[in-house]
Design goal:
Subcellular location: Membrane
Structural class: mainly alpha
Radius of gyration: 20 Å
Number of domains: 1
Keywords: Membrane, Transmembrane, Transmembrane helix
Distance between the termini: 50 Å
InterPro entries: AceTr, Gpr1/Fun34/SatP-like
Pfam families: Gpr1_Fun34_YaaH (PF01184)
Number of strands: 0
Oligomer: single chain
Number of helices: 7
GO molecular function: acetate transmembrane transporter activity
């Protein structure tokens, strides 16, 4: 062995696998819980019912998937999961903060605080939707449905319309169904089967 060979740093092994197999199912379970809250499965005062799933499962699951994707050099995938990690974790903090008065927000500012949260994330996910136009169409559909759900819940919240919020909850179930499709395709490919068709990108 030459001196150069002896001193050369060993190559870093790149983790293998598909981060979507963690990111997508943890997204599905959190979205299902959120949809059930928005459609009235639990009383309006029990908005925190979904946090036991969203905080430890969905938020952390998205974060793990983002780190895994980044370690593989999958920057776009890491960005998507990182964005949704931020969404789900900040949603959990918002709900816990409002229900436990962590931030000193007066009761009469609770609605505008929720409106701020929803508006900020609607802007971010719309931007993500536009950035996804070169991805297979299933991803653009997923993000567009999330945009619609956020918009409906935003208008329902600021206008005190339970019906708009409920419709937003059903749209949550719609994008959850797209997530299920993506998960089944990823799992099929990971277990030696054929991946499911995801559609042509809007922009080639």
């Amino acid at each position: 062995m030459t001196t150069a060979e002896a001193t050369e740093a060993p190559a870093r092994a790149i983790p293998e696998g598909d981060p979507a197999l963690i990111g997508v199912p943890t997204f599905i379970v959190g979205a299902t819980a959120l949809g059930l809250v928005l459609t009235g499965y639990v009383p309006a005062g029990a908005v925190g019912a979904s946090i036991a799933i969203i905080l430890p499962a969905t938020g952390l699951g998205q974060l793990v998937a983002a780190v895994w994707a980044a370690a593989q050099g999958q920057s776009a995938v890491a960005s998507v999961f990182g964005i949704f990690a931020g969404f789900w974790l900040s949603y959990a903090v918002l709900v816990l903060g409002l229900t436990h008065n962590w931030f000193g927000i007066p009761a009469d500012a609770a609605v505008s605080t929720q409106g701020l949260f929803l508006t900020a994330w609607l802007v971010m996910i719309v931007l993500l939707t536009l950035a996804s136009l070169r991805l297979p169409a299933a991803f653009t559909l997923l993000f567009a449905l999330i945009d619609l759900a956020l918009a409906l819940v935003l208008f329902g919240t600021v206008n005190g319309s339970a019906s708009l919020t409920t419709v937003g909850g059903y749209v949550v179930f719609a994008f959850t169904a797209v997530g299920v499709y993506l998960f089944l395709g990823a799992m099929s490919a990971a277990t030696g089967g054929r991946s499911l068709p995801l559609g042509r990108p809007v922009l080639s």
